[in-house]
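Tokens for Parvulin-like PPIase. Go.
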Amino acid sequence: MTAVSLLPKSSHRFGLTAVTGCLALVLFAGLPVRAEDANPVLAKVNGAEIRQSDVTLAEQELGPSLAQMDPATKQDNVLSFLIDMKIVAKAAEDKKIADTADFKTKLAFARNRLLMDSLLATEGKAATTDAAMKKVYDEAAKQIASEQEVHARHILVETEDKAKEIEAELKKGADFAELAKKESKDPGASDGGDLGFFTKEQMVPEFSAAAFALEPGKISEPVKSQFGWHIIKVEEKRNRTPPSFEQVKAQIETYVTRKAQSDYVAELRKSAKVERMDKPAEVAKPADAAKPADAAKPADAAKPADSKMAPAKK
């Protein structure tokens, strides 16, 4: 008995076409998109192409000036800039500006700077492994955990006589916080003179020396600083708690990167023949790379000597 198909011939043809189409998808799905499709030509200036990669590079170079723009506006402005740049650059070439000594000097400098930046970026990136950053964090966290911090209140007045008057009232049993609200000239007076927790380096030396010498619950004699006269009461002492790795990861990455770059340059200098005709100036060492211990410290607590007397309460 001859088998009879339940589908019309047209359906057979459709089925074959569908199978062939699916086979094509399977065979070609893994092929990469052509580079020119991923990097399209956005404009041409006198035949010279401007591609998406040119716009992306320009956005990276222009950086902060584009930060407030939405993506579409940014793309449009950068493309317009690149068009103008090509037009002006062609005019400069026609005027033989590229042949001038001044241009060649600047071009050589720009080339060397770009080469240096590119190599140091590579070295820095290679150094910022998870293991390297964790090692820096662990060392800094250990140091921080060994440091003590104090929770204190203070009353700030202008004269020693006034400070002694307040000291006498406190000895008679006056409430420290209430006296601070009434008498202190510090911005934190409304909080009863509460300074929160702070480390030695977060306060001016005279203040820190007095505060860290006190036991919890004790009150100091009048202490003189650049801000005036202080009466200090220590509420509590404790060892510092390091921030988590994630909280300071960006700072540690910056430190590891800069240190690796600095070490790499120092190593290259050893094998380079350098002849300086001038006398090097006596300068302090560069401070652009934070110390490991600083890298694991919260960056939001300004020193009172730099801003106000007390850091933000914690």
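The first strand starts at residue 41 and ends at 45.
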